[in-house]
Amino acid sequence: MGKRVLVFAFGCIAYTMFLGVFLYSIAFIGDLWIPRTIDAPAQWGTAGAIIVNLLLIAAFGIQHSGMARPAFKRWLTQYIPKAAERSLYVFSTNLAMIVLFLVWQPLPLVIWQVTSLPAQATLYTLYGLGWALVFVSTCLISHFDLFGLRQAWFYLRGADYHPLQFQTPLLYRYIRHPLYVGWFMVFWMAPTMTLGHLLFALGTTAYILMAIPLEERDLIAVHGDDYKQYRRDVRMFIPKLF
Ligand SMILES: C[S@@+](CC[C@H](N)C(=O)[O-])C[C@H]1O[C@@H](n2cnc3c(N)ncnc32)[C@H](O)[C@@H]1O
């Protein structure tokens, strides 16, 4: 029983941390409300800042995609209960994000700026909608499974855990990756695009585009023809009109 409580408590810690990181990210990427953001304060020279920022994005990508691969999970679950694997993934992702927040070097050179108030309001609205899309997409698949709490809760009760089935609820009927569309909106819908923000948007977009084939390869390995057919019928990001 002690081990089950420990796994569940860890799941709750990882999830609470995620909520904090999620809210902080809204302020950090949007350059809103807090003193230390993607755009401020600038400290380093351009070359050093670009190298450090690219390394931060690469480190995040390696953590986030590496720990999601079945082979890594098989190795890890020799040492920790299966029910704790997703929470450890969420916990590690939180740490990678916190390091990025702390070490990120702003590059304030303005690449483009939208000055008209209606256009700014539109971009801020799309930024907010992007965050909403990210959150809603996690709920459509299974929010608490993606963040490890469902696994920990089943384990606490001694119940059998059933992994998520392949599903195409709501938005997933029209595009395969609504959550990533949400991320693209979050990364790109900025009224003031600084060099630092542009680097972040390019780096994270490139990362997602590289991660998708890995995710889809794993989905095909688990769901076989169902996912292959889904790939034929439904586009990645832009719905088919007819
Ligand atoms: C961060 S979510 C991103 C989901 C999707 N790529 C998107 O952009 O909306 C990644 C997890 O969702 C799962 N997943 C992706 N599409 C799914 C589907 N149609 N049904 C069930 N699980 C899915 C993957 O196996 C992976 O564990």
From TrEMBL:
GO BP annotation list: methylation
Q: Name one GO molecular function term.
A: methyltransferase activity
Q: Where do the TM regions start and end?
A: 7-30, 42-62, 83-104, 124-149
> What keywords are annotated for this sequence in UniProt?
Membrane, Methyltransferase, S-adenosyl-L-methionine, Transferase, Transmembrane, Transmembrane helix
Top-tier EC class: transferase
Tagged with keyword Transcription regulation = no
Q: Tell me, in one coarse class, where this protein mainly resides.
A: membrane
Name the record gives this protein: methanethiol S-methyltransferase
Tell me the organism.
Blastopirellula marina DSM 3645
